[in-house]
Specification:
The protein is mostly helical. It has a single domain (4-108), classed as Up-down Bundle (Four Helix Bundle (Hemerythrin (Met), subunit A)), CATH 1.20.120.330. 65% of the residues lie in helices and 0% in strands. The chain starts with a helix and ends with a helix.
Length: 109
């Protein structure tokens, strides 16, 4: 099995490929999956067994983490937003870039 860092890099590579094909929805899915991998690794290293396995549920669990900086709680919030009927985000945000910053923090802590 790959280490979390490698798995995360692979998801961001898939996100970049999706963007090249103008598939922003798939890029968001990859960003969310990368965040889920980082979150699971973060809690496992701290001896906490996450109650969920989906990236979406892990992001919601992470929002309750007292050690997580407020700006990254906002990132977790963005990554759990529902898209509109036009499949657009209700906010102006680059979820791939935001997910990278979240993953970087989680891997360092």
């Amino acid at each position: 099995m790959n280490n979390p860092q490698t798995e995360i890099e692979q998801e961001f590579e898939r996100a970049a490929q999706a963007r090249e094909k103008a598939n922003e929805g798939q890029a968001r899915v990859c960003a969310r999956r990368a965040a889920g991998i980082a979150i699971r690794d973060y809690f496992n290293r701290r001896g906490i067994r996450p109650p969920a396995t989906s990236a979406y549920d892990l992001l919601n669990f992470l929002k309750e983490e007292p050690l997580l900086p407020q700006d990254l709680k906002l990132v977790a919030d963005h990554l759990t937003l529902r898209v509109t009927e036009e499949f657009k985000l209700p906010i102006n945000a680059d979820l791939v870039t935001e997910a990278k910053s979240l993953c970087d923090w989680l891997l360092k802590h």
